[in-house]
Specification:
It is built from six helices and two strands, in the order ααααααββ. A two-stranded antiparallel ribbon has the order 1-2. By secondary structure, the chain is an all-alpha fold.
Length: 174
């Protein structure tokens, strides 16, 4: 016979993974039951090992109820990554994402530069000559056709300082 699940997620005859680990009876008011299902005890063990039950409960008490699920998913993800990669945890994923952001920023800058180039060409203005490799392969030195463009966009684009996905520093805004 299948166990009946309550609104909070705790089964009526089966404790959540957190209560099971602590060897206590799971009540319908259990704050951890919606996040630590009884069929996934490893998820709770990872979170417990990294954060501890008291800290998890403190986070749940302090956070806005609308954000509890997302916060717990984040804690669980971080705990599982720490279990999978004990030394660096989420760092490799963060560095990979920052590297992808930097590549997308460079591509965006190139596309915006080409759009400006074609817009100037279409309007019949003086068209700058494009070079290979100078200023990310966009413009020759001394040509001020896109100086205003660079001031408008370069100061608002995020810049990642992650040149190498293996060596990573947090991204920042200029």
């Amino acid at each position: 016979m299948r166990a009946k699940t309550t609104l909070k997620g705790a089964a009526s005859n089966q404790a959540c993974a957190a209560c099971k680990h602590q060897r206590k009876r799971c009540t319908p008011e259990c704050a951890l039951a919606p996040h630590f299902r009884p069929e996934h005890p490893k998820v709770f063990k990872n979170a417990h090992k990294l954060f501890g039950v008291r800290n998890i409960l403190r986070i749940l008490e302090q956070i806005n109820p609308d954000h509890k699920t997302e916060a717990m998913q984040t804690l669980i993800y971080e705990a599982n990554m720490r279990d999978q990669f004990p030394v660096h945890g989420c760092l490799n994923v963060i560095c990979d994402l920052q590297y992808q952001i930097r590549q997308a920023e460079e591509e965006l800058y190139n596309v915006l530069t080409w759009l400006s180039f074609y817009k100037q060409h279409h309007e019949g203005q003086h068209v700058p000559t494009l070079s290979n490799g100078v200023d990310h392969g966009l413009l020759q030195p001394g040509n001020e056709a896109l100086a205003l463009f660079r001031q408008d966009f370069a100061t608002t684009l995020p810049v990642s300082s992650c040149d190498n996905p293996n060596v990573c520093i947090n991204a920042f805004w200029i």
